[in-house]
Specification:
heterodimer, A: 246 residues, globular, disordered C terminus, B: 226 residues, Rossmann fold, ten-stranded mixed β-sheet, 7 helices
Chain lengths: 246, 226
Amino acid sequence: MLSALDVVTDLVMIAAAAIYGYVAYSAFAISRTLSNGIYRRQAMGVAVVAIVILILGEGTGFNSASGPVSTVDFIAGFLSFYATFIGLYYWIDASIGAARLTDPLYRDTFHWTRLRLAFWAYDAVALVFFLAAGILGVFDFTTAPPIVLVFVLIPLAIMIFGGAVVLPIAARRSKDRLMKKHLNWFAVYVIVVLGFVFVVGGTPLQSLLVAAAGGYFLYRCVRSLVPLYKFKTVSKDADKAPQRAP
Amino acid sequence: MASTGITALDKLLGPEGYPERSAVLVTGAPGVGKQALGYSFIHSGLDQGDFCLYVTRLATREVLKDAKAFGVNFENKAPSWISSDGAGFRYDYRDLTGLSYSIKEVLKKNSERRIRVFADVFSPLLMLNPPDAIYKFLTQLIADVKQYDSVMLATLEDGMHETQVMTAMEALFDGVIELKVYREGGLSYVPILTIQKMLGMPPQPGYFRFSFSQNAMEVAAYAQRT
């Protein structure tokens, strides 16, 4: 029999899922209106983060796990966790590129255009190695020696940390005021939500409430991807093309 | 008339594109597609045998790579370049006089042909120089370009300049095209092209939806202001 707390937790989870789903949809929809690849990736990055948080929330991320963990569960959990940070890095990488495009001096902060390739390559190799070794039975995923986890997680940490250092510098060089708003909202989201959920921790209900509130920050972040306008009074009977005066 | 390189947009501006001896400004947020209009404009000019000048703060190879992503290939027929790297004339934001001189020299040498100029440098120039200096530079540049059988297309970033700067810049041009993203009903985001003004055209109340597909830009009527 479900307790009142379980019911409230489930309702909050559904609300959080709806919020993150809407954020992901909005980010995808906005990315489709943009033609420049870097800006599309920036929007997609927000969508990826929203989707991964949504999956984590519906899966094991916000629910305390209990009992032995199977290999499949471990891989699923690990990949969900990993995907969150890859999504985060994907967004950081695109945002640095976008900041560069709006820097009037077009500076390549810390040679990021080359550094990013090295980060991606190293991380891809580390992840493939980890998964291949585990699947081939070199080690048991559920009892993987710490050195293996470090081998996979260290490049991820370096990527995120490196990006987190470069992005504010690149953002300061940019003159795009709306992009700065976008970055500020995302930073608030990361600090409040990911900081609370992954670092501070709390009961599942507390985590869900913080995550749901954080969905608002992520939504404001999406709204700051591009200036958005509303139609004035319009008629959808669009006439044929206007003619030039003779 | 100078074709825009986009059939639907040519029909919109009727009958064949941008007016002769005009300077047209395209404004829009970063990433919305202003450069694509420039690529199509220059590519169309090259196909028609016009002399085309591309003025950019980027390196030539970066523009070539980005143009390819939009299905525009400048490798067989290339415009003349003024860029930060890989061009005959180097773009230097600190030297407006030199930039003006370089453009004038190139135009003078090719004055026997129809000329097209595309420039995406005005937003960074406005951010790095006093606005009055850029207005003066641009006024003179437009006057120089119009001495020839030419059309100039320029871009300006929406959201990165003060309103009065945008208004002042738009006043210098014969035509202004805006690319914006509109939000409809909370669930729909629509990229819309509007013609704020164009030499020889009456005020245009229409909203036109644009998109990029199969390496081509499509423009279609969407709604009318009532």
